[in-house]
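fyi for ur records
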Amino acid sequence: MTALHRAFYARDPREVAPELLNKLLEHDGRSGRIVEVEAYVGRQDPASHAYRGPTKRNATMFGPPGHLYVYLSYGMHWCANVTCGDGLAVLLRALSPVAGIEAMRAARSAASRDRDLASGPGKLTQALGITGVLDGADLVEPDRGVCLVSDGTPPPDVVVRTPRIGITAAAEHEWRFYVPGDPNVSRPLIPRVRP
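which gave:
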């Protein structure tokens, strides 16, 4: 298991996002392989929390790259993002469970199948026990028991690209990436066909 270097994160999130696929996110003895992500491009992206600049809520996004930005969505679900610096980030949307599956089942008792344990951003954080106390955790250096590592599995040769989910602003951009055919993906949409 190898932690990713700071330079890996310090790039355009549209480049980082597909390269995060098949990496492992670990916390509290639980881990999963990243199978779905979305890129958010900061101040030029009306769907991004960073669009209007730094605030107390999004401060982690404007810090160094390679940190975990965790926020509460609609007052109900924690969501986890990987920061790329200067307000740029990648939302972690879905994982394929790898280790600590019994603990994930206990945390996600509503999931009737293992493929539903982390098949969405709120489910992912619940399954791994990620909450707001991990906002700002460093993913490059060991910090608060959370890490993002590579076990040598490369991103898929073919990555599915679709518009992002659950947004209205800048919804036309195909900045959602996922592993084709993976049953843990939140919503396997058919990508748009371009002429």
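The longest helix spans residues 13-20. thats all i got for now
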